[in-house]
UniProtKB/TrEMBL annotation:
Alphabetized UniProt keyword annotations: ATP-binding, Helicase, Hydrolase, Nucleotide-binding
Designated name of the protein: DNA 5'-3' helicase
Similarity section: Belongs to the helicase family. DinG subfamily.
Biased composition (Low complexity): 463-473
E.C. no: 5.6.2.3
Organism listed in the record: Streptomonospora arabica
Transmembrane regions listed in the UniProt entry: none
Required cofactor(s): [4Fe-4S] cluster
């Protein structure tokens, strides 16, 4: 094969073909990704909004794939980015690069098996008796029946069987009647529809692609649970890498409750004697009764009664598993499907019960899992078991035999990559100083930032941060329970942003307000919100720490200001964002699920309000257990867990303000602790480098000027 053009040449060609302009940060990132691929050293890249990071990693990824006749895997956390890559970025990029690469690069998307229609399950789907229906509400059953009928019709015309292509969509309950998980699938060889399987076709397409796009959960299942769902690859790009730990933790979390026990018993009932399944069903009912008498929250020691209930489920599930595995192994496809589905459900129940019981065996300090009971008016009581940390798992399974590029707009917390690197199991950076550290020192040395009385800066002052937090801006070795010899070699790079944050945005911290309380929004907070919204003439994204606070603010503001207030829950999130973007003087209030994915450039968004620093709840079972574990090893659990969590969410939330180079506006954080608390410097240095103030009139005056400015063009 002829020598391919270098990355810089390909990037220039791609930018020209796509009608863009060359960006320094994009070029620096592309070259760094190419170098990482060549050297095998992992790369952590922070690329601010507007950098064009997708192009910066796709160009070297495609070049490597075509030069080596191999596949590069790209994973994302959100469906929105996945669609952007598959429907917009990759088609345009492939067409642009084809003349220089002698052929058009091939790309594919790969999702978990549950996302694809199963033809075999479809033939046996009984809409009159969906096994997961709670309480068998006749109206719900009728709705499911209509949706399943529609799925039958769609199956005759779809080419991919991909659920995301079905519009309008159907409920999860209906979809479960016509799909199977990886554990439930009998395999293409045994399935009568194996040659027509949508999931198998997607995997086949992926196997021949230069670039395969998938999600973090699929990556975790394939790489860490040993299912080998992804094609062989030596290079992995993890976009939205700030989400990686949470997504991997979710995949690695086991659950035990009455519903999965009943589902397992029902599936096993077709294959084993009634006495065994009755025993399993009764153990599930007993567990539900015990849950009703137990306190919700984290368990450091499992009460004897609850431990007995879990053990009863474990033993009953084991008896059913043994009976099925020692029974008939006939190859009839329908029987094989029933057997596989029963084994999958029983294994899930049995393994979760075993893991819960075994998690309490080591001394508290040596445990690797945390167990908690979740219960509430809208959820079935469920015992959860999750890993205290996933860094060791990531280091062993993800970073061991491939080159990994981790990128996002927000990875440097407190001016350093160390907090997230510790959570990923990367440990300390193995080579020189990252650009983050160099810029932090430069900012500190020059004293850059507003010379205003009472100003607060949002820059990258790493040295200042270390001083303000007692030298604990970055977790030390003791903060990382996964730290071990032989850490993967990696380097960090911050390519900055093409936006001039200090000239385009103001970070206003309401230092004069009282610290936030627990009993809803203080009236003074509501007054502050009303004043800011009035000054901005609407154009406000309100990000609240709870749905209760968002609803309270929406209700109050609707009585006080003459602009439309949209609130999360009034309609689908997508539709609310569309209305907010279209109606310039409206406001959109919501909670944590809105902090990412809201991309509204232009005059419709000129004010972002954050009601409080988004620390995890003190009673959050996983966060509190992780914080305690860090402290037990001599580290600062608050900084390593709570402050890092808050810094990441704050960076994501405040990053909603500037989405294009022409955007201008104000980020208003009402929580005075951002300006007054010892950890405030760490949090502020995690945010985009907006110009800072604590003067409310400065913020309101800026908003009034923006609202009165003539529309450009």
């Amino acid at each position: 094969m002829a020598e391919l053009p270098d990355v810089d040449t390909l990037l220039d060609a791609a930018v020209r073909a796509l009608g863009g302009t060359r960006r320094e940060g994009q070029a620096v990132m592309a070259e760094a990704v190419s170098t990482a691929i060549d050297t095998g050293e992992h790369l952590v890249v922070q690329a601010g909004t507007g950098t064009g990071k997708s192009l910066a990693y796709l160009v070297p990824a495609i070049r490597h794939a075509m030069a080596e006749d191999t596949t590069v895997v790209v994973t994302t956390a959100t469906l929105a980015l996945q669609r952007q890559l598959i429907e917009r970025d990759l088609p345009r990029l492939s067409a642009a690069l084809a003349p220089l690469l002698n052929r058009e690069p091939v790309f594919a998307i790969l999702k978990g098996r549950r996302n694809y229609l199963c033809r075999h399950r479809l033939q046996g789907a009984d809409a009159a008796d969906p096994e997961d229906t709670e309480l068998f509400d006749p109206r719900q059953l009728s709705s499911v029946g209509r949706q399943v009928k529609r799925l039958h019709e769609w199956a005759e015309e779809t080419v991919t069987g991909d659920r995301d292509e079905l519009a309008p969509g159907v409920s999860d309950l209906a979809w479960r009647q016509v799909s199977v998980s990886a554990n439930e699938c009998v395999g293409a060889a045994a399935c009568p529809f194996g040659q027509e399987c949508f999931s198998e076709q997607a995997r086949a397409d992926a196997g021949g692609a230069d670039v395969v796009v998938t999600n973090h959960a699929m990556l975790a299942i394939s790489t860490m649970q040993g299912y080998h769902l992804l094609p062989e690859h030596r290079v992995l790009v993890i976009d939205e890498a700030h989400e990686l730990v949470d997504r991997v933790t979710s995949v690695a979390t086991g659950e035990l409750g009455e519903r999965p026990v009943n589902t397992a018993a029902k599936r096993a009932g077709r294959l084993v004697e009634a006495g065994l399944t009755e025993r399993l069903s009764e153990s599930g009912e007993g567990l539900a009764l015990l849950f009703g008498e137990s306190e919700a929250g984290r368990y450091d020691h499992l009460p004897d009664a609850l431990a007995g209930g879990v053990a009863a489920v474990r033993d009953a599930a084991h008896a059913c598993l043994s009976a099925i595995r020692s029974g008939s192994s006939e190859q009839d496809p329908d029987y094989a499907t029933q057997r596989k589905q029963a084994l999958a459900a029983l294994d899930e129940v049995h393994d979760s019960a075993v893991r819960i019981l075994e998690s309490f065996e080591p001394p508290l300090r040596e445990r690797t899992d945390v167990v908690w009971l979740a219960k509430g008016p809208k959820q079935s009581p469920t015992l959860h078991v999750a890993p205290l940390a996933v860094g060791g798992l990531l280091r062993e399974k993800l970073f061991g035999d491939r080159t990994t590029v981790l990128t996002s707009a927000t990875l440097a917390l407190g001016g350093t990559f160390a907090p997230l690197a510790a959570q990923w199991g990367l440990g300390r950076e193995s080579t020189g100083r990252s650009r983050v550290g160099a810029e932090a020192d430069a900012a500190d040395a020059t004293g850059s930032g507003p010379a205003e009385s009472g100003a607060v800066t949002g820059g990258t002052g790493g040295a200042e941060t270390a001083a303000e937090t007692g030298g604990e801006a970055a977790p030390d070795d003791a903060d990382n329970p996964d730290k071990a010899a032989g850490e993967p070699r990696w380097r960090g790079l911050d390519v900055g942003s093409p936006f001039d944050h200090a000239r385009s945005g103001i970070l206003y911290v309401a230092r004069h307000l009282p610290p936030p309380g627990r009993d809803g929004l203080d009236p003074r907070y509501l007054d502050e919100i009303a004043g800011l919204v009035e000054a901005a003439g609407g154009r406000t994204l309100g990000l609240f720490s709870s749905m209760r606070a968002a609803a309270q603010a929406a209700e109050e503001l609707r009585e006080r200001v003459d602009v439309r207030i949209l609130c999360q829950g009034d309609d689908s999130t997508g539709r609310l964002v569309e209305e907010f973007a279209e109606e310039e003087d409206s406001c959109l209030f919501g909670t944590l699920s809105l902090w990412q994915g809201v991309d509204v450039p232009g005059r419709s968004l000129q004010l972002v309000i954050v009601d409080r620093i988004p620390f995890p709840r003190p009673d959050d079972p996983l966060a509190s257990a992780r914080q305690r574990a860090v402290g037990a090893r001599g580290g600062n659990g608050f900084m390593a867990v709570a402050a890092t969590h808050a810094a990441l969410l704050l960076a994501q939330g405040t990053g909603r303000l500037l989405r294009s180079a022409a955007d201008r506006g104000v980020v208003a954080v009402l929580d005075p602790r951002l300006a007054t608390a010892r950890y405030g410097g760490f949090l502020r240095s995690s945010l985009p480098p907006y110009w800072g103030t604590t003067d409310p009139e400065v913020a309101r005056a800026a908003l009034r000027r923006l609202a009165a400015a003539p529309v450009a063009g």
